[in-house]
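$ ./design --mode recover --in tokens.txt
reading tokens...
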């Protein structure tokens, strides 16, 4: 056994945080010499500080572990998976083992919300591959004992990223909803497949009820609306293109693209790359995805869309059929003018899809839902509750206004699964609407969260995320060391900005300044990850060199965390 779960020593724990272990790759990838020089300028020796911090952290961890294991009588180091159920008399061992696992998980949950805990304990790929003390990713031919498995469970979480941490701002999906987590645990325990009522009776009915709530929020008439949960926004967007093609050219399903003219679809230059992926996957081709110009806020310009449609229509053999409007672009959080786009789609008889993977959650807020006005005119909508609504990953829905289309488009009526002569209403065997066969149950955690919060609870949560964004925006606007990427209050919870270190502040605009500014965000991010205090994303966009994108979807984040982020960026970037 490589390490003990119960007696994981403080020194052993500290040893793995001593920086030289990271130096080799650090030098290669981020220039650790500079990192160390920067650290040297700080009031105290950072290495000492960090070590002290880690001593306290590891002692606390050790205490926590001991308090949870003191009363334990089971010796897991002599036990194996084969001693658990369904082994004869395996019930008690199974319970004890699962109690230990739950203990590890609960520890992790507490730490995720604890601001004294780091967001991550970063290690480079080669370090994880080589193995860390007591934690090896290698697989062997022989079984390992349960003690080792518990160590592995704990270390898997230890070396991962605490995406529920209030200071994790890196992704659109953040947070750790305790009810949602309970739902996911239950789902994993049930371990069923949501393709038929036969084996998922309760989950199938929940899906119907929840999807109906979503149609209502969109504003579709009560007799309309169809949908399923899918494995993420990209797949939901893929469904939208697939159904739109089927609607216009149903023969594509059986005869393939040879019988279809050259199809063209339209999406904004700020939209998600999954629209292009869908075109590639469906044999439409990425060159037939026309990117429509956006304004300075990243919103599609309707007149540009109309122009592109007219230009395409004039080309021999080119057939426009689909427009994607985005409600909440990935980087700027922009919401396209949905009503104007709907007018154009109506005029040219085009399928209007709204990619509201990120923005869909705004429909839960009376204050912010007005920004999505026009979404009710969409032919289909992607909406990811795992983003702004905080449902655990994954939870994404493709919603189609016309009932029955999804089924007709995708059904293949496999005899062994979708028998028409079952003893219940087989319209509840919804699996043939999907492009997959087996489908994970994504609905339960979301359903349970809705029960726990009500629509009102989601509204409070969403409003809080947008309040945090406005708070950050107002703070940055007042500072000379930060510059916002675009003017005006954020529409969604994205705030995009540059940090301008003192060395760049007097530099005139031009190539040299842009080149240096482009390097600032990645260098700060590298230090941020190595120190593990917080996480925020960066990217270039069009003409704009690398800038930070802060997004809020974690209701645990407070204004003090926003202040922390600002000061952390300054601390890490001041010397650049
Ligand atoms: N599917 C878009 C997710 C992007 C992000 O979390 O930043």
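writing sequence...
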């Amino acid at each position: 056994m490589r390490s003990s779960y119960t007696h994981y020593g403080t020194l052993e724990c500290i040893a793995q945080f001593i920086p030289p272990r990271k130096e080799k790759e650090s030098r290669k990838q981020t220039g650790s010499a500079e990192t160390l020089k920067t650290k040297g300028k700080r009031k105290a020796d950072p290495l000492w500080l960090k070590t002290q911090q880690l001593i306290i952290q590891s002692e606390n961890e050790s205490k926590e572990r001991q308090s949870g294991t003191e009363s334990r009588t089971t010796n897991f180091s002599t036990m194996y998976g084969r001693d658990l159920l369904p082994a004869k008399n395996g019930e008690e061992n199974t319970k004890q083992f699962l109690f230990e696992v739950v203990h590890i998980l609960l520890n992790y949950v507490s730490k995720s919300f604890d601001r004294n805990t780091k967001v991550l304990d970063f290690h480079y790929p080669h370090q994880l591959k080589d193995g860390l003390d007591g934690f090896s990713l290698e697989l062997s031919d022989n079984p390992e004992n349960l003690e080792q498995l518990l160590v592995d469970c704990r270390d898997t979480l230890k070396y991962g990223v605490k995406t529920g941490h209030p200071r994790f701002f890196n992704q659109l999906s953040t947070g750790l909803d305790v009810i949602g987590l309970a739902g996911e645990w239950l789902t994993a325990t049930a371990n069923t497949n949501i393709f038929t009522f036969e084996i998922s009776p309760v989950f199938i009915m929940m899906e119907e009820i929840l999807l109906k709530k979503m149609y209502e929020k969109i504003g579709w008439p009560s007799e309309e609306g169809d949908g399923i949960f899918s494995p993420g926004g990209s797949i939901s967007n893929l469904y939208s293109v697939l159904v739109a093609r089927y609607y216009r050219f149903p023969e594509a399903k059986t005869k393939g693209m040879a019988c279809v003219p050259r199809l063209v679809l339209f999406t904004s230059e700020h939209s998600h790359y999954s629209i292009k992926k869908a075109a590639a996957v469906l044999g439409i081709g990425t060159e037939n995805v026309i990117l429509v110009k956006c304004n300075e806020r990243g919103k599609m310009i309707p007149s540009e869309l109309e122009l592109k449609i007219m230009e395409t229509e004039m080309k021999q053999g080119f057939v426009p059929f689909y427009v994607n409007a985005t409600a909440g672009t990935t980087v700027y959080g922009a919401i396209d003018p949905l009503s104007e786009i709907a007018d154009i789609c109506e005029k040219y008889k085009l399928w209007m899809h709204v990619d509201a993977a990120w923005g869909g959650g705004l429909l839960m807020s009376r204050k912010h839902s007005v920004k999505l006005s026009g979404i009710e005119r969409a032919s289909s909508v992607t909406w990811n509750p795992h983003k702004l609504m905080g449902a655990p990953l994954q939870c994404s829905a493709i919603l189609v206004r016309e009932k029955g289309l999804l089924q007709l488009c995708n059904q293949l009526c496999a005899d062994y699964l979708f028998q028409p002569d079952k003893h219940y209403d087989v319209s509840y065997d919804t699996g043939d609407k999907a492009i997959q066969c087996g489908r994970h149950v994504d609905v339960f955690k979301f359903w349970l969260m809705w029960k726990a919060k009500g629509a009102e609870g989601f509204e409070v949560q969403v409003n809080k995320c947008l309040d945090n964004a406005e708070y950050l925006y107002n703070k940055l606007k007042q500072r000379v060391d930060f510059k916002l990427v675009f003017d005006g209050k954020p529409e969604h919870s994205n705030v995009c900005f540059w940090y301008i270190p003192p060395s760049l502040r007097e530099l005139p605009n031009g190539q040299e300044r842009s080149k240096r500014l482009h390097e600032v965000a990645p260098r700060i991010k590298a230090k941020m990850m190595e120190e593990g205090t917080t996480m925020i994303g960066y990217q270039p966009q069009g003409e704009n060199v690398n800038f930070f994108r802060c997004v809020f979807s974690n209701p645990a984040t407070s204004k003090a965390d926003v202040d922390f982020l600002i000061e952390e960026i300054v601390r890490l970037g001041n010397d650049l």
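exit 0
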